[in-house]
Amino acid sequence: MDIKETGKKLKPFAPVLSVALVTACVAGSLSGYEAPVYAATQEETPIKEETKEKKEEKKTAAKGSFDLEDGVYKGTGTGYAGNITVSVQIKDKQIVSIDILSSSDDEAFFSRAKAVIDKIIEGQTLDVDTVSGATFSSRGIISAVKNALTGEKDNSTTGQAQSGQTAAAAGSSTSVAKVEDAAAYKDGTYYGSGTGFGGPLKVMVEISGGKIASIQIVENSDGSDYISKAASLIDSIIAKQSTNVDTVSGATYSSVGIIQAVRDALSQAAVNGTSDGTQDNNSNNSNNNSSSDDNNSTVTGTVPYKEGIYYGTAEGYSGDVSVAVVIQEKTIKAILITENSDDEAFFNRAMDIVKKVIRTQKTDDVDTVSGATYSSKGLLNAIKNALKQAKKVTNGEPIDEKPDLTDLKELIERAEKLEEDKYTETSWAVLQTRLADAQEALEETKQTIVDKAVEKLKTAIAQLESKDGKDEGNTKYVSGTYEVTVSCTSDEDEDFEEYKLTMSVEIRNDKIVSITDITGDGASSNDSYIKRAANGTSSIKGVVSQIIDKGMPEDIDTVSRATCSSNAILEGCKKVLEAAERPTDMEAE
């Protein structure tokens, strides 16, 4: 029995979309050998007819109709500040990826505009809405994709050439009315929000001795050039002890956003009167994502660290929890949650930890919250890590630990030694993109970013396709992408209903080189467990990364609190290997 007959025996499945981002040097159509796609065989399990219908609807909705040959196409559109150039990969009449090759638009707005890419791919259509607050940039991306696929040129003028429409789309204003300042302010740290050029803008205002002592911009969606220019008015506010100041020319919208945010913060600190008649007075400066002391003047601490905002991350229940801790006058004034993937109901309960830390001004002897043990433990450890950062800053030690670049450098060296003429154009283009990303990651300061670059480059090397295909005949497994579905069954320690887990597994040169599209058909509450099992956390390596490192689902550690999902992924990989195994000579006869 030859390979073709083996392929017929295995249940075929529609080709899985491969992640293939190409560099700017790749233009026109790329073509080459495409790996076969099979479905791993297993015993059929009855599925409700309604579920089948829903899945069929999704497949129909996602079906593309672009009458183009498989390959990569390049196009250009007009954004806010200039041209936007993209590459679009077509496979089986579908858009499988869109890569931004170049853009002149401001990074903050352009990052928001890229949301249209997911809309285009998901709907397989160019008839999608632009992104609010980044209208011209998102319109430019859509036009560039259209140019790539149809050849139609975008002859429109840039957003800069059109009077003020982008700022209006951002929901901001060009001016602020003068207001009557409050008679006095309560000492403490207050947070306020406004709307800048690109969207929400948040500031932290410190009041000391009844006066505005400092103002810091802690969050904004504006570009760095605009916000840096607008921030010069902060000195004017402090000097005048008033928000009735002039906006900065060339950064009007960002200036207005800062003034609005400062007034919002001051309205909470006002002893009598209000700093902005248009803002509602709100004396409670805490919510589900932040907490500060309700009476700043009475709480004093003995935290021996330099004033500032410090950041910490730790493992919660479903993933990482990150916080920002504000220290002023040896006192923890506020703790803000900057990242959290735990269930909202449990995490809100865990927020009692924040109140206890601010009330006692210490992290020792603070008990976890009953019913939210893992979330509260993660929150407490994140606060402790932020305070460790504060200690380093106080002692003059660097807070950014240098990442380990050993594996990344070795992979880059290995990739640079490969010869282009031995591999197909498509797989080589993907490798070059990942190689460029890896070289940029050499300058990164975060280990997590470096680790991701290592995984992506490692996968790209493993997915290289030989032009002559000689290696394929000597392999134990038939290379290709397989879709498999397995059951995720609860054990005696778990409390969830059995569900089906589906994923795509790619085999290349007798190794598993990619595991993607991992989804479950059960309750949405299972999603966090699947994500945890696949990707792990900052302190636990996910099973996907472990399998790809070894190339096989052997000697893999399951992820704690996601054991069943981990085992289901491992079981799926084993089923794929069984289905992909080549028949022996005796079996072929």
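The record above closes out task 2.4. Task 2.5 opens with a second protein, given below.
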Amino acid sequence: MNPVTAEVTARIVERSADLRADYLERMAAARDQGPGRAKLSCANWAHAFAASPEGDKQRMRNPTAPNVAIVTSYNDMLSAHQPYERFPDLIKAAAEAAGGTAQVAGGVPAMCDGVTQGRPGMELSLFSRDVIAMSTAVALTHDAFDAALMLGVCDKIVPGLVIGALAFGHLPVIFVPAGPMTSGVSNAEKARVRGLYAQGLATRDELLDSEMKSYHGPGTCTFYGTANSNQMMMEMMGLHLPGAAFVHPNTPLRDALTAAAPKRAMEIALGSNSHAPMSEVVDAKSIVNAMVGLLATGGSTNHTLHLVAMARSAGVLIDWSDFDALSKVTPLLARVYPNGSEDVNAFHAAGGMAFVIRELLDAGLAHEDVLTIAGRGLRHYQTEPFLQDGDLAWREGTAKSLNLDILRPVSDPFLAEGGIRLLTGGLGRAVIKTSAVKPEHLTLEAPAIVFEDQEELLAAHKRGELNRDFVAVVRFQGPQANGMPELHSLTPTLSVLQDKGFKVALVTDGRMSGASGKVPAAIHVTPEAACGGALAQVRTGDIIRLDALAGQLEIKVDPAELAARPPAVAKPAGFGYGRELFGGMRRTVGPAEAGASVLF
């Protein structure tokens, strides 16, 4: 093992010892109670399959026939989740062929940050993760299942499903992805039109035409944002069937992978020789593997929130210092838009996850000795699925990158370090995604311009007030203030100003997402402005220094003077769009570095 990877893992294990032991004790107690049907009365059990077909009823009478839960995020307005409409029938047929049954145990909400960007609904986005976790618990709490399949892809959905499923970690759980859409208009062209529109040089019709050519069919958006980072992490954590992440929807190979999931879930259920409960699959080593994968591929900064909360649900405590330490020894192996010009389909064609995992294992950067749903050892995931005479099979993935502009080996990486760094200083603790930022922009010192929300910044740009060097401080965007919306709508505007030659950066207690790009952004600043953070005392004109190389986020104001300033006060939380229903969550949510969750 790389000594830093080993050291960080040991530190996490020690830090988590008591919490992890308590979690495993609870999972063992649940496991020892036996299958759900053994505990249910005849009336309870009859209720559980009263509406099932007669054949399913007869199999459910068999005390040894496994019953597999399906928890689905299907809806047909979101491209990533629309393919799930077909999955339950595929899964049920496959379960029947394997001698068991499968039931849709429940559904979870799936909202799209791409639809709510810059809109009031974005203030519910982060909280939807914990709602999904609780919805998953509601679905599985019927306690009628021997295993579970999680159908989810996008930003908050997969983390929420992981958190909820870990509460039932005595069960084997497999995540069943739907895959990315086929490639549309090039990312460079999409960015060009967005930039023109931000400058008033393209019409709304021209912008919409470009966006529709980009987001054009079923499947996940093809840029490497949070959704596709989710899929990468499920492979790194051993919760997918190997190589399942980036196979297109509605193809024979995707259908074969979907049908294989319930069969494998039954094979690893309690009592089998391959028993693999989720509580043992997700441990400190698999969490470190997920962090290393995130860094090696330049993945989404949202996972400095989500992965912390996911780990906590398994009794594992991680923080931003762990990400930072791993980032310094994890080379950047992938350039996928917005960190490069090509999308996840090109990444997959170049060797994809099988290549990345092989490289990380061979370099000792990831742990091989982990339990996965495919068996013992992460080497299972350096294989790729294919159809052989119509049957699903696996073969070794390519040992060489098929496109060095997208995917490189550890011996010749794009960068020697990973894509996420920790910033500390007088403004608090923050994270920055560096993988898409040019070296000359990684250090900046300029006057602050303070904004209370993103609309103020956009309005100032339209008035022509931002044609200069500055650091945009957008505050009161943290979880307690307004639910921590993504501020990705600022990216085109700040990018245009940077392209004009101005030195610009963003400092915020809000989020920027996996789609954030070339402008340096210190995000998730903790403590947030609404909770006594120094951002509430920053004034326009204060000099701020952001140094991603040195890990600094400083304000050039005497600390005593800064502390003596009366803090700004957040505007009242908004009403409408359901925001008034989430007041309790805003009051009880934890800080960003602890996962920004209401559950712990």
